[in-house]
Input
Amino acid sequence: MKRKGFTLAEVLITLGIIGVVAAMTIPTLMANIRSHQYRSKFKKAVSTISQAARMSQAQYDYDFSGIEQTCGNNGGTQHPEKIRSICSILNGTLSSSTYYNKASDIKISKNSAANYAINYTIDKDAFLGLNSGRGNLADYHAYLLNDGTIIAFHKRLGESNACYFEIGYNITTLNAGSNKGLAYCYGFIDVNGPSLPNKEISCSTGKNNLEDKQTCIVKPKDVTDVYPIRIYNGIAVPATAAVKYIFDTAK
Output
């Protein structure tokens, strides 16, 4: 009897082809999975912030449009019935979160001495960054949620006025910071917490500003974990076109 089978050369060639195909497809698959995870966590965090405003309005009769002062150095202890600040709103509505007076005080991990830092992009249209004046993490109060998400707001939020945006204004004026004291009504969400990549999301193609948001596209491989936001009235909104694209395409 004759037995049929594959030669060693044929087996090795087949394994080589499988290896090449896997090397080409696995990185794309992993990027798509990571992109989906980041999008979902970002949308959840935005919902959490907006829900906090709604709960504060229902319980204490004010939301972000009723903020009257900054958090100061004791933001973690402020109560919404005594002080109207962004910290008091979150203190009264968020559960299982840790407050940091400076976002730069967050540790990379429990057993690490290294502090949290953002890898700023060199994109000239980036919202965060040292060249924009928004790049110093010591200028932000932060909350570390129990799912690892970081929600941070500028320390001067509430200094000039409440975060109020009158209906009828063009939403793109939020970036100018000249409308109703909105200059410091911004912050960011890091959906991956202190873990890497800690990089602001930017456009794969197109311009990263709200005025040209229709030109911005973010490919799955370019989805990162830091998302600048603006807050006003009772909601949180994307601060850049890249963030807007992620928010609109998240399921």
About this structure: The helical segments are 8-60, 86-93, 173-176, 241-249.
